[in-house]
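quick one before i forget lol
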Amino acid sequence: MAVDLGQFDHPSWLTVAGTGLGYALILAVLTLTMFIVPWLVFSAL
């Protein structure tokens, strides 16, 4: 069965990738500010 990879050239796939990347970036920033920064502050005391 031949797979046509041309179907993934549609701009909607770029939107899906951008949404996933943006979501991951927001999660990383929230994790940093809610867990890592307070842990560093309290461990320094």
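fyi The helical segments are 11-44.
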